[in-house]
Design brief:
CATH superfamily: HUPs
Shape: globular
Helix content: 25-40%
CATH architecture: 3-Layer(aba) Sandwich
Number of strands: 5
CATH class: Alpha Beta
Number of helices: 4
Distance between the termini: 26 Å
Largest sheet: 5 strands, parallel
């Protein structure tokens, strides 16, 4: 269905990333690409990995490593994949910008719904849903 899918996730939430990747895989065209993305907030919040100012490169590499492990674990070797790490205070804007730059056909996010903790804050999910340059799929947290 889609030639390029952007999966925006927090690598600290492995089960949710697995669900997003498995869903993306089912919707991916043969020969399509999956872009696995995390947004790093320089301020650090409960929703995003914090990159300490003292060693940002080491922290970035650790986050990339987590994303790579999740991709290798949940995607077949033959699927083209790229790891993208963006820095910014507005994850919604970063996700939309990357989707546009990469010409993604679909963005996949995980939500916990109105009653619980969200890996992406509500405003991020809403921002992406309204401003995405392509289709956006918001999945419910795995039970």
């Amino acid at each position: 269905m889609f030639a390029k899918i952007l999966v925006a996730t927090d690598p600290a939430h492995g089960d949710e990333t697995a669900l997003a990747l498995e869903t993306a895989l089912r919707l991916l065209d043969d020969g399509g690409d999956i872009l696995l993305m995390a947004v790093v907030s320089p301020k650090g919040t409960e929703f995003f990995p914090h990159v300490p100012e003292e060693q940002p490169d080491a922290a970035d590499e650790a986050i990339r490593g987590k994303l790579d492990v999740l991709a290798r674990k949940h995607l077949p070797h033959a699927v083209e994949r790229r790891i993208l790490l963006c820095h910014g205070n507005s994850p919604g804007e970063a996700i939309v910008e990357i989707a546009e730059e990469q010409r993604a056909g679909l963005i996949v996010l995980i939500s916990h719904g109105a009653g619980g903790r969200w890996p992406w804050p509500r405003h991020t999910v809403e921002y992406v849903s309204v401003n995405a340059p392509c289709a956006a799929l918001v999945l419910r947290q795995p039970d």
